[in-house]
User: Which sequence fits this backbone?
């Protein structure tokens, strides 16, 4: 029988094992992370399952079923430094509980194969490369660029992986794990304030938003703050300030879109000088590729306009981008039904943060995610938390969704 | 006979002696500065003058006259690192040329005493304390706070001064130099673009603007840029951006006022986070104390309003302030006459930057300054420059002003 309270108890056990007074320390490819994974492997000993690490260091647990078609549940045990107790770990431990229920209910042989995956290095906290393990599974890895990444101590990514028994050149072999993967489900904390503001425990995730991330630099003219009349200035900060306000209008035209200027740097950056150069970063996200493209275009035009108004120039350079990755429409409906049956209301929302689920979409697998409320919307912080009754509802809803997804897989196999 | 070309030649001589490929290096209390001062002392050998260093390291050159009442000309030989060839040095060398003319014209005994001063450490480039020497003369020094200042190598100000023969505890003795000081005249480069934009070589300075300098910090809520809807943000950058634009309206209501946000720092300052804290600096200047007070009040109210609009809070802390220091109205008229007779038009303007002249005003002495055009308004930079014909006009106009000021002193002494 499903025991959501056990999931909470196990998450607390994991916290006691891998957190210090600053929060979770399960950074991928570190000893604390290895300890967490060893602890997890021990949890599997009483189950009729096979488990192994794939070529990218992802752990796969398999409960064979009558059909080779597999329902996969998963998330990641790794955390950021000083992280929370639920980010990632909730999805893995809730998946384990659902797998236990399948094993028990079907006498060890469910109608389809049930698999559980703990992806390696979702956070990218140490080497700045997130979704590392899941991208290997999806076949969207970037080995040449990633092998030479260094951590803050100068250790190469490829050497850190080798220490954990993973050879980066063998990453493509991890794609084998996609064979027979019929659906992927992931439960995760929201990491935002939407469900809390709606007073809902659970949400149905429509997909992960596409991201356009750019560095924007305004060039004006450094000048003495005392001797330069206002109308003779070329104030790079003024142009940047106009953009910082205008991006709110640009995002505001679309219900779920967000635009953020997260960093502003001023040069020379002293109290007695008009800003000659202002470096900013822009992050834009939406679930619609068309909206994303329009917002980027609008920001570019606005920046040009503000630069001209302030007698400055502006240059853009793309930091990173990813396309929107909508989840499978039929699985979204199944998730909505499971959430609705569990807590009455199925609110649908996109995910701003990326997740391993996004890479699995790119790998061509039907995917859906479920969110559980985050208190104060805070994550990547030791104060990250979720009410325990919400956690219990989340495990129960994931279990419901797993059942209906098994039926969906069987229907599709006929 | 006055020889303005000699002044230019001497300034070039000084440049050759004390500049490198990055500009002037006459930073106060350094060997290069001492070399500049030694060079200057040698220039005095053929004149019938007494000269000495006062207790604060200012050099005073005295050409005794029939009256003990003294006309003082002056400026400073010290520069910022990588500075220009004219900032400060022009006023000292032009003053020397005028002194030579007085000595020659009156056979060594002019009607009033003529003095020339090279103030020590106007720039404050090494220890962050500008107007050091002139404040000692004015009696507005701040010995306790200044003695413990350190340069970037950790050397104490009081030790750097001692190495040059100056004991900071004896600073108050420098006030003796104010005895019989009837007027102080200073020629300086504008360091701004106003005269160039008016196509005028010279300007009459009305006084130095008062300055209000504040650190303003907006506190919002750091949040994930992907998962936090626009309307649920507490974006500290947005509040700061509004203020950066509003200060232009605040300054714009007054013809000569300036307001500048020169530094913006964002925290955590990463591309994926809404800005939780934004630290800015505000510098406001005007020649009217009333306008300055009103602008500060308006900025404070605006910051409060923007903080509230963005669901943030704001805190202010004063970095520094100084009151406006208007020059002597009769000397301003004499300066206008001299400028007008030299180049046809006498444009009056306040000085945004501070000068030693401001401290001498605080010391209760009648003061006026004259500006000569700065090409592109640029100073504190090796490309600082002024047309040579403008430099010649400036020396000639200062000489005219010195003559009329001597008459004014004699009239006042009767």
Assistant:
């Amino acid at each position: 029988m499903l025991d959501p309270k056990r999931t909470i108890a196990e998450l607390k056990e994991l916290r006691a094992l891998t957190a210090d007074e600053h929060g979770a320390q399960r950074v991928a490819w570190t000893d604390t992370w290895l300890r967490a994974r060893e602890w997890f492997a021990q949890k599997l000993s009483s189950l009729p399952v096979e488990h192994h690490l794939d070529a990218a260091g992802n752990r796969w647990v398999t409960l064979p079923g009558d059909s080779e078609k597999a329902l996969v549940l998963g998330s990641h045990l790794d955390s950021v430094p000083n992280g929370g107790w639920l980010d990632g770990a909730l999805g893995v431990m809730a998946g384990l509980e659902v797998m236990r229920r399948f094993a028990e209910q079907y006498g060890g042989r469910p109608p389809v194969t049930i698999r559980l995956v703990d992806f390696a290095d979702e956070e990218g906290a140490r080497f700045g490369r997130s979704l590392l393990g899941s991208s290997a599974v999806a076949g969207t890895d970037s080995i040449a660029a990633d092998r030479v990444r260094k951590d803050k101590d100068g250790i190469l990514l490829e050497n850190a992986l080798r220490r954990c028994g993973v050879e980066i050149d063998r990453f493509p072999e991890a794609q084998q794990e996609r064979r027979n993967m019929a659906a992927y489900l992931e439960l995760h904390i929201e990491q935002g304030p939407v469900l809390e503001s709606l007073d809902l425990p659970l949400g149905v995730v429509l997909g992960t938003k596409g991201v356009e991330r750019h560095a924007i630099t305004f060039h004006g003219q450094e000048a003495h703050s005392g001797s330069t009349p206002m109308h003779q200035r070329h104030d790079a900060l003024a142009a940047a300030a106009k953009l910082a306000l205008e991006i709110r209008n640009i995002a505001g035209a679309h219900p779920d879109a967000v635009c953020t200027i997260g960093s502003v740097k001023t040069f020379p950056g002293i109290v007695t000088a008009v800003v000659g150069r202002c470096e900013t970063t822009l992050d834009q996200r939406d679930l619609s590729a068309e909206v994303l493209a329009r917002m980027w275009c609008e920001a570019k035009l606005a920046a040009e306009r503000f630069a001209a108004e302030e007698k400055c120039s502006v240059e853009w350079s793309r930091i990173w981008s990813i396309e929107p990755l909508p989840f499978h429409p039929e699985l979204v409906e199944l998730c909505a039904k499971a959430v609705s049956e569990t807590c009455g209301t199925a609110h649908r929302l996109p995910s701003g943060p990326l997740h391993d689920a996004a890479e699995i979409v790119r790998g061509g697998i039907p995917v859906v995610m479920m969110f559980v409320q985050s208190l104060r919307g805070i994550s990547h912080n030791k104060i990250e938390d979720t009410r325990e009754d919400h956690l219990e509802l989340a495990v129960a809803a994931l279990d419901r969704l797993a059942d209906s997804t098994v039926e969906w897989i069987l229907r599709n196999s006929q």
Remarks:
- Chain A has a mean pLDDT of 97.
